[in-house]
């Protein structure tokens, strides 16, 4: 288990997340892509904390912040899905041609 | 078998599992299964975090994601067509560009990870990392912790405000629907 190996795994998770967020049409699948990206970011942050920063406890705070971002993204994303579905009956990006109201 | 060999083996298995299940999220036909593949990926990453002696963060990640993926599966069943994956489906757009962007992101980040010269100060494996993190969260870095908490509170209020059907000033979708051509019939007084 080396730092390089961990960072490559984190980069792979991020890359798969980028692919999913750009290619999927369903809102929930796009959110899955975003979460995979944050997953990779958390892994990279903790890897750098454990292998390179000497394990000062401040290093883990970045991962805590990333987890907060993930929770915020999930909550706001689900709320927006509910709101868009209620107004437009849409569950896919292709059904939203207009952004207005 | 020595301990470091076991750790290496666990790392390879967990990281391969994390990446493969992340890929399967976008390959499976069933959206509910996609949610659970994503959970598998998060559990594997949580395992890697435990191997890195960040036990607290790993377990928090697994707990958070177990709840969130359950909610996500419920959302799939509620909102999406074909949640059970009875029919094969590929719902993608700009597929080639997305694959390219994913590969470029992977190559760029992995290149940085392989080429960059990071300081080589591994954490001592016998340090009480969880206790130190707890002291830090409630000590010097309390502002970070509190900011995260207040952000989550604001998010909860905002999410409820976005998702609620009826607000204080009428229906949530009032103004976003096209106006009726004829005036609605007057309501009978109760």
Mean pLDDT of chain B: 84
Order of helices and strands of chain A: HHH
β-strand percent of chain A reads under 5%
Low-confidence parts of chain B lasting 5 or more residues at pLDDT below 50? Answer: none
- The total number of structural domains of chain A is 1
Count the helices of chain A. How many? 3
Query: Over the alpha carbons, how many angstroms does the gyration radius of chain B reach?
Result: 24 Å
Could you please say which CATH topology of chain A applies here?
Helix Hairpins
Backbone structural class of chain A: mainly alpha
Distance between the termini of chain B: 81 Å
Cα distance spanning the termini of chain A: 51 Å
Instruction: Name the helicity range of chain A.
Output: over 70%
Question: What key attributes describe this structure?
Answer:
heterodimer, A: 101 residues, mainly alpha, Helix Hairpins, 75% helix, elongated, B: 190 residues, two-stranded antiparallel sheet, 6 helices, 64% helix, 2% strand, extended
Describe the structure.
- The complex is a heterodimer of chains A (101) and B (190).
- With 101 residues, chain A is an all-alpha fold.
- Chain A has one domain (3-95): Helix Hairpins, CATH 1.10.287.
- Helices cover 75% and strands 0% of the residues of chain A.
- Chain A has helices spanning 3-23, 27-51, 59-88.
- In chain A, helix 1 (3-23) runs antiparallel to helix 2 (27-51) and helix 2 runs antiparallel to helix 3.
- The radius of gyration of chain A is 17 Å and the shape is elongated.
- Chain B is built from six helices and two strands; from the N terminus they run H-H-H-H-H-H-E-E.
- Chain B is mostly helical and 190 residues long.
- Helix content of chain B is 64%, strand content 2%.
- In chain B, strands 1-2 form a two-stranded antiparallel sheet.
- Chain B is extended, with a radius of gyration of 24 Å.
- The chains are: A mainly alpha (101), B mainly alpha (190).
- The interface between A and B is large, with 75 and 90 residues.
